[in-house]
Specification:
This protein is of the alpha+beta class. It contains 13 helices and 10 strands. The model has no long low-confidence stretch (mean pLDDT about 95).
Length: about 375
């Protein structure tokens, strides 16, 4: 079994091992059923909170456990190495994209009302940015919020929103001025607000344990106190958190790849063909070695960028490239793992089949590879 611990302190290795033990106890016996159900139970958030796994990397002053992005990487690497699905990770940690804007820019009232309950496992939040007509083009958002006295009135739609079906609120990106990227704001919209509905739950190729919804906003009235930070500063707030999100997606990528490598290696040890184990074939050993190499490179690159982020460096371009490196690795390694499993790799009962489906989203989510490559090119001075 391949396990990488270099790059982590002793405390971070212990955190990773705790995450793996938690997985064996609280996740492994139930994950197949959660995948069939299309969502994870709400009480799982309480179990994560009681285990000390929700607030890692979140400031203590808002209810978190403190620590750095690297601490969170160590924990989540443990989860992935022990067999979490992409959908489970996405739904269990949607707060990683739902509450940072509030923590960094929101009022104390918003922090007390939404952030603290999320970190205690009592609430579930989601982030509403993507729309039916806009994906990576955040500046093109059309969902509009108009000030009306002490309220904003919101009209529009969002799609592909993770945890929105079972969630309690959506930190929503809206247009408050007709000035492109400079006319966006962030407003917290609670579930149950009149006119705010989950218009449908979406079916996906992978990430099956993650509930994904399409949202409708029809004359939704929200108090002005639910505005996050300043009006028309939303694009900056969103961009502020893209780096950590892309590092997280990179970790998800190499985490899937590492799990697939271990599953494939074990299968090749156990499976006999023509009177000998698959590992007796040079071509199989070479393939596993290449899988190992790519995982190690993706992990090293991702953690280096995370460490530089923790040190306060500007790593926007590097985060884009780390994500691409890791998710390309995930797609290739998962494909090779299915190939090495033969017919069994194509069966739903095989874990590598699930990873194969889950990793396909990674080059799309959080900014497509094509968009992020162009962004990195401009940041690195390679564009006119």
């Amino acid at each position: 079994m391949t396990s990488f611990n270099y790059g982590f302190t002793e405390e971070q290795v212990a955190l990773k091992q705790s995450a793996m033990e938690f997985t064996r106890r609280e996740v492994t016996p139930h994950l197949d059923q959660w995948e069939k159900d299309g969502e994870i139970p709400r009480d799982f958030q309480k179990k994560l909170a009681h285990g000390g796994f929700i607030g890692v990397g979140v400031p203590e002053e808002v209810g978190g456990d403190g620590g750095t992005l690297i601490d969170a990487c160590a924990m989540q690497e443990g989860f992935m190495e022990a067999g979490w699905s992409g959908g489970l990770m996405a739904s269990a940690y949607t707060h990683g994209i739902a509450i940072p804007h509030i923590i960094q820019n929101g009022s104390q009232q918003l922090i007390d009302t939404y952030v603290r309950p999320v970190l205690s496992g009592d609430m579930i939040g989601s982030l509403g940015i993507t729309e039916p007509g806009t994906g990576s083009d955040v500046a093109g958002i059309t969902t509009r919020a108009v000030r009306d006295g002490d309220h904003y009135v919101i009209n529009g739609a969002k799609t592909f929103i993770t945890s929105s079906v079972r969630g309690d609120f959506v930190t929503t990106a809206v247009r408050t001025a007709d000035t492109g990227a400079h006319g966006l704001s962030m407003i917290v919209v609670p579930k149950g607000t009149p006119g705010f509905t989950v218009s449908r739950k979406l079916d996906k190729m992978g990430w099956l344990a993650s509930d994904t919804g399409e949202l409708s906003y029809v004359d939704v009235r929200v108090p002005v106190e639910n505005l996050v930070g300043e009006e028309n500063h939303g694009f900056y707030y969103i961009a502020q958190n893209f780096v950590s999100e892309r590092i997280w997606l990179a970790l998800l990528g190499y985490g899937h790849a590492l799990r697939c490598l271990n599953l494939a290696a074990q299968y090749c040890r156990d499976r006999e063909t023509f009177g000998k184990p698959l590992l007796a074939n040079q071509v199989v050993r070479a393939k596993l070695t290449e899988m190992h190499r790519q995982v190690a490179v993706a992990r090293s690159y991702t953690l280096e960028v995370a460490q530089r982020y923790d040190a306060g460096e500007d790593v926007i371009a590097e985060a884009c490239l780390a994500k691409q490196t890791a998710v390309d690795t995930a797609v290739w390694v998962a494909d090779q793992a299915v190939q090495l499993h033969g017919g069994m790799g194509y069966m739903r009962e095989s874990e590598v089949e699930r990873h194969y489906r889950d990793v396909r989203l990674l080059p799309i989510g959080g900014g497509s590879t094509e968009v992020l490559t162009d962004l990195a090119a401009r940041l690195l001075g390679y564009a006119k």
